[in-house]
Amino acid sequence: MHVDLPLDRLLEYRATGDAPADFDDFWRSSLDEARGHALDPRAVPVRTALRTLDVCDVTFNGYGGHPVRAWLRTPRGADGPLPAVVEFPGYGNGRGDVLEALEWASAGFAHLTVDARGQGAAGSRAGATPDPVGSAPAFPGFMTRGIEDPATYYYRRAIVDAVRAVEAVRALDAVDPARVAVVGGSQGGGLALAAAGLADGLAGVVARVPFLCHIDRAITVTDAHPYAEIPRYLSVHRTRAGAVLRTLSYVDGVHFAARAAAPALFTVGLMDPVCPPSTVFAAHNNYAGARDLLVWPYNAHEGGGVADLRASLDFLAPLLDGRPVTARGTVTVHGESSGG
Q: Matching Gene3D superfamilies, A to Z (predicted)?
């Protein structure tokens, strides 16, 4: 059912509260620290049964110089450097099997599917990247690991890894570094927004039903996981809400959106209990660059499903012809368009 704000209010909805005063300095120093370690991207060819795509097992160094794994898929026989799509996984997922996620490369892109460190055992796609950093006591999952300090928080590491993934794909011979886009759904959409706010010169962004947006609201209007991990933690650590909310403000997609310039496509389901619609609209409405939005009134966290994939492929297709991606500022609701 619709349990959030009505659509007319969502279209104008904005989060209250500013980014922390040292938000930009925090992320600048986090990335500078990571860049103190060699990026060292390695792409090792992998033999598969696929006859139309080539696959490489990619490793690069992310946060702390820790190795991060990814698959790179490219169309077999493609000439010249290709536009690239860097895809981040949903919560609990990793890069998956070598035979999964073949659509982007089949469409003509170089496609890097990146692990989320420590994840890949709770979703449908396996991971291969450990997180060697421990934390104080945390609720099972990833949302509360190191959550009382932004410097130790899990998503600091995951977001730095996401930016380093963009840098790594740009360093690969198969890729045109001027034509790199980031995409993802749910957690992957949140990481795509973070990369959009931190990585310069992206050609496009696709954030499907993005997670990690307007987090302070999300944890009070839904009891669905993964957001539910945070109030469960606070129900035990009753006096730590101030520290927790401060940490979450450093990873909120609303603040990254305000710093992003690449044309973007957002999607949202108005019956989504996992990423409440108001949290997605808050990020969309705060996005600094041109953006389009697809609204699915009768869908939950699946959003538009395959229709979202089709729209994403169409949105980034100009990159295949050397043309820029464009967003027109439209909001499309159940097949009807209006200026936004």
A: alpha/beta hydrolase (3.40.50.1820)
